[in-house]
Amino acid sequence: MAREDDQESADLARERELEWQQIVENFGERAVLDPEDVAPVEPEPVGFEREDDDEPSAGDQVPLDEEFVPPTPPPLPRPPLDRLLAWCGVFGVPALVLVCIVAGISVPSWFGLLLAAAFVGGFGYLVMKMSDEPRDPWDDGAVL
Predict the structure, then answer these.
(1) Is residue 118 within 8 Å of residue 94, measured between CB atoms?
(2) Residue 117 belongs to a domain
(3) Residue 43 domain-assigned?
(4) More confident site: 111 or 42
(5) Domain of life of the organism in this record (predicted)?
(6) If we measure between CA atoms, which residue out of 121, 120, 93 comes closest to residue 107?
(7) Domain annotation covers residue 120
């Protein structure tokens, strides 16, 4: 709020108030244009058209025998059998339990305990096999 003794801030406040009053008074009114003032707009062509006198450049056509063919990727690495069984326990057991629940299959209690032991054992084995040494702070995990 402007002080009475500060003349510039009082003038500025009055100007702002007048501007807001004009905005509020003109709110909702639309400008009416005469039809003569509006020029018709022709749509521009969307695609690129090449003129007939242009010759194709060397980069436009690539011979088929010179196309890049990527090398075949190496096969996926296979984990050792112990880690593979641990991962199957961690991911396979919940998937099997979910399928049994959705299908409405009830399993014996000893089988449920065996599944729980497989999950906990697989998770514990993977945690046990983790490295205790800290990683290099500049190592982002990328292998080239």
Answers:
(1) no
(2) yes
(3) no
(4) 111
(5) Bacteria
(6) 93
(7) yes
CA dist list (Å): 134 to 2, 83, 123, 125: 63, 21, 21, 19
Amino acid occupying residue 77: P
Q: What angle do CA 137, 139, 144 make, to 5 degrees?
A: 170
Total count of domains within the chain: 1
Sort 93 into a burial class: Cβ within 10 Å, 0-12 / 13-18 / 19+.
buried
d(CA 115, CA 92): 9
Q: Domain limits at 103?
A: 81-128
Give me the pLDDT at residue 2, please: 47
pTM listed for this prediction:
0.46
The answer to whether residue 116 sits within a structural domain is yes
Overall average pLDDT of the 47-67 stretch: 62
Amino acid at 18: L
CA diameter of the chain: 90
Cα–Cα distance between 81 and 79 in angstroms, integer? Answer: 6
